[in-house]
């Protein structure tokens, strides 16, 4: 995040859609040391599925539990399946009140329950995420579009 940028943007100057929701629960909030790069949620679930198949699942979960600040980007692009729900709950359980987690999404927090799917799992995950979080909402258009010089008229014509 670049707090000096007008309206707020990420460190590359990009905005992600109309609204970006960031939740930062954990003992160190936004000020934790980032020991692992940002993870796109679809890639994370892919890595966990592969690890489940080749026997590295427990080791991967333990490594995710040790990261001081875990940044989950592109949260909510699609509804979670059963394995992804269980993976997310395991990650949040391992990290809850021990390490910080940042979740970035174009969806408002109110829509996250539906993305998780199963109401019981959604309640458990969101209880661990939302109740001890800082919530930052950014509004505005896409900085990628602005920096590329495209206008809405140019996009329609192209």
Helix content: 40-55%
Question: How would you spell out the order of helices and strands?
Answer: EEHHEHEHHEHH
Q: Briefly, what CATH class? A: Alpha Beta
Number of strands: 5
End-to-end separation in angstroms reads 31 Å
How many alpha or pi helices?
7
Low-pLDDT segments: 1-36
| CATH architecture tag | 3-Layer(aba) Sandwich
Give a written overview of the molecule.
With about 160 residues, the protein is α/β, with parallel strands linked by helices. It has a single domain, classed as Rossmann fold, CATH 3.40.50. Helices cover about 40% and strands about 15% of the residues. It is built from seven helices and five strands; from the N terminus they run ββααβαβααβαα. Strands 2-3-4-1-5 form a five-stranded mixed beta sheet. β3, α3 and β4 form a beta-alpha-beta unit. α3 packs parallel to α5.
């Amino acid at each position: 995040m670049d707090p000096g940028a007008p309206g707020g943007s990420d460190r590359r100057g990009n905005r992600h859609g109309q609204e970006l929701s960031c939740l930062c629960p954990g003992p160190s909030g936004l000020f934790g040391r980032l020991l692992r790069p940002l993870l796109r949620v679809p890639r994370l679930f892919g890595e966990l599925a592969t690890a489940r198949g080749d026997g590295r699942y427990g080791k991967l979960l333990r490594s995710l539990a040790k990261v001081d600040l875990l940044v989950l980007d592109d949260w909510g692009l699609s509804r979670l399946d059963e394995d992804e729900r269980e993976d997310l709950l395991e990650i949040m359980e391992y990290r809850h009140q021990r390490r910080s987690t940042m979740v970035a999404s174009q969806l408002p927090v109110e829509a996250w329950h539906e993305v998780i799917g199963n109401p019981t799992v959604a309640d458990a995950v969101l209880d661990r995420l939302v109740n001890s979080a800082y919530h930052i909402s950014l509004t505005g258009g896409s900085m990628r579009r602005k920096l590329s010089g495209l206008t809405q008229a140019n996009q329609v014509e192209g």
